[in-house]
Amino acid sequence: MPFDESWIPAPATALxxxxxxxxxxxxxxALIKGEPYEMQCPKTxxxxxxxxxWLIFKNGKWQKAKLPNKxxxxxxxxxxxTEAAEEGVLYVIEAIDVASHSNQNGALTFTGFVEFPDAPxxxxxxxxxxxxxxxxxVIRLRIGSARSRGFGEVILxxxxxxxxxxxxxxSLEAFCERAGMPVFTLLVRTPAIVYDACGQPAETxxxxxxxxxxxxxxxxxxxxxxxxxxxxxxxxxxSGAWGLPKPVQQAFAAGSVFSYTYDPNDTDALQQxxxxxxxxxxxxxxxxxxxxxxxxxxxxLQQYIVQFQQGGKxxx
Length: 316
Description:
The chain is α+β, with helices and mostly antiparallel strands. Helices cover 18% and strands 25% of the residues. The strands form 7 sheets. It has a 4-stranded antiparallel beta sheet. It has a 3-stranded antiparallel beta sheet with strand order 1-5-6, with no helix packed on it. The chain is globular.
């Protein structure tokens, strides 16, 4: 994503003002407590709709992230034999418009991170960088389509530490106080490819499935269906090694929200487990970035729709 680590996908419980998406709200705690809410913006009275896209926490408030604009390029096809323009052959390339979204250095920056389970993995990664002709701390390469036509040039830079970011999670105590009961949530940050015991795509993220990836999960944890909102999507990809498309797999879409209840006596054990889930992805193809979760997203607390309808101040 072209923004730092503070971004989240819009939760499936989020509502946006249809006419002005700077007004953002969330319905999670209303679902947990069975509170009614109107589908009208508390600030403007305009219609609310399911929020989609990406959100960032910036300058002390949540706002909708703006993705880079795209630009369409029309090119003339060339005859490979004569190296001249082929009559009647035009093609179109859609690419990111770098000029419309640039930072102070004049370049669009995408930020990510790499986690290593052990030292040998990091050594292997460093060896790959050396193979890519590491010079002056940067790697110049081309990615995407139409590379031979001058598109896709990027500079890869590696820092020793991840950049600092705004917090996107809240404590168990804050969630329990707002919900009036012991509860926690898992927000799917990147599509999660999860299968059940029969090898079929999981219908939901049950505690039993979670324990397969986090054995420390307390036995008292139970799914809260009334406050769980699931969306699905199909994920595929391209294998550069084989030159073939990857299999199409069903996944929980980014933004899906899973809610759970637990015994208050298990708070300490659960806190350790959530810390593990926040840093360790679940499901298949985790090395490609799939399966990342956000426990107790701060968005749910800060954008609680009922408090705005009762006269609270908006963080949107």
